[in-house]
Design brief:
The protein folds into two domains: 164 residues, Galactose-binding domain-like (Jelly Rolls, Sandwich); 141 residues, Jelly Rolls. The chain is mainly beta and 376 residues long. This is DUF642 domain-containing protein.
Length: 376
């Protein structure tokens, strides 16, 4: 009888330990083995790279044709480079990686990960945290290294969710597929209104996690691909991404973070605010360059109600900014504030770049002005 009681207690203790482990809330930064430096045993690799067994990679569950790639691995004439550490995974056709995350129900999170296209041209990735999902088209025109970092946000509907990154590709070569590395998470805190500013998160200080040593920024997809913006209070409209940048790797007008408009007129940074019809308001903001070698004349545009302004900026590619102001009269009880780049810009290495927007503020003047436009 005593032996049976001890056995029951042991079973209960084991179950409690497993439950406690599952209940650990994720912290900001790389997920457990998020850089894939803990690899499978050699006995679990076929031909040196193909992962055999769904749980061969510690902390991850895989399905389909998944390869464990070491930096410098050769595929034909292509040399595969890994940005974070020495290892990454490659997802073949219909392959995926999965990790269970213990989160806070109702909280918002942003996933950041790096990806590189390999032999296929039209690669895409499905990113999901049940029951939400999004499709991210793979682009290499944003970063000269071949790697880009992407952000994708979600609202936790459960206390424990499954993050899945899946390659839906249908290439002739099942091994053709994107490389994945540096998977991280950051809790997003809904910004509140600061005194003297009707815009939330006007300095863009709240946003996704920046991966260590990733000097190319983080691409934030348009809202048609992400129901919850990784930039709280802001929406990315149209079809192209914007680039979220930090002061550790770029020139930022104010604070430590800003947004680079790399999508021309195909991408717009938007926030909707409450206004009073007939009242006038003043939108102030900074326009500059991120010191990433993007050289030449730039034009950034701002819109609100029926007013607009085009702000010219001559970039030397070494950093700098100017302030601009747009006065407008509200025509409804909600007004969209919009920023976008008039033109596409490209660096000498062929990668896209553009003007930086930062330190945006909106104040009410409460008197009628004739939509006056002023540049400082």
């Amino acid at each position: 009888m005593r032996r049976a009681a001890v056995l029951v207690l042991l079973l209960v203790a084991c179950a409690a330990a497993r439950a406690a482990a599952a209940a650990v809330t994720v912290t900001d930064g790389l997920l457990p083995n998020g850089n894939f430096e803990e690899g499978p045993a050699k006995s679990e690799l076929v031909n040196g790279t193909v992962v055999r067994g769904a749980k061969a990679i510690p902390r991850w569950e895989t399905s389909g044709f998944v390869e464990y790639i070491e930096s410098g691995h050769k595929q034909g004439d292509m040399l595969l480079v890994v940005p974070q550490g020495a290892h990454a995974v490659r997802l073949g056709n219909e392959a995926s990686i999965r990790q269970q995350l213990a989160v806070t129900r109702g909280a918002y999170y942003a996933i950041t990960f790096s990806a590189a296209r390999t032999c296929a041209q039209g690669e895409r990735l499905n990113v999901s945290v049940s029951p939400e999902w999004g499709v991210l088209p793979m682009q290499t025109i944003y970063g000269s290294s071949g790697w880009d970092s992407y952000a994708w946000a979600f609202k936790a509907k459960l206390d424990e969710v499954a993050l899945v990154i899946h390659n839906p590709g249908v290439e002739e070569d099942p091994a053709c597929g994107p490389l994945i590395d540096g998977v991280a998470i950051r809790t997003l805190y809904p910004p509140t209104l600061a005194k003297g500013n009707m815009l939330k998160n006007g300095g863009f200080e709240e946003g996704p996690y920046f991966l260590p040593n990733a000097s190319w920024g983080v691409l934030v997809p348009p809202n048609i691909e992400d129901d919850h913006s990784p930039l709280p209070a802001w929406m990315i409209m149209s079809s192209k991404a914007v680039k979220y940048i930090d002061s550790a790797h770029f020139a930022v007008p104010q604070g430590t973070r800003a947004v680079e408009l790399v999508g021309g007129k195909e991408s717009a940074l938007v926030q909707e605010v409450r206004t009073v019809p007939g009242w006038t308001y003043r939108l102030s903001f900074s326009i500059g360059d991120s010191a990433d070698g993007c050289v030449g004349p730039m034009v950034a545009e701002a819109y609100a109600a029926r007013a607009s302004v085009k702000v010219p900026y001559e970039s030397k590619g070494t950093g700098g900014y100017k302030r601009a102001v747009l006065d407008f009269a509200a025509i409804s009880n909600r007004t969209r504030v919009v920023f976008q780049s008039t033109f596409y810009h490209m660096k000498s290495d062929g990668t896209l770049c553009g003007p930086v927007v930062d330190d945006a503020s909106l104040v009410g003047l409460r008197k009628k002005l004739a939509g006056r436009r002023l540049l400082l």
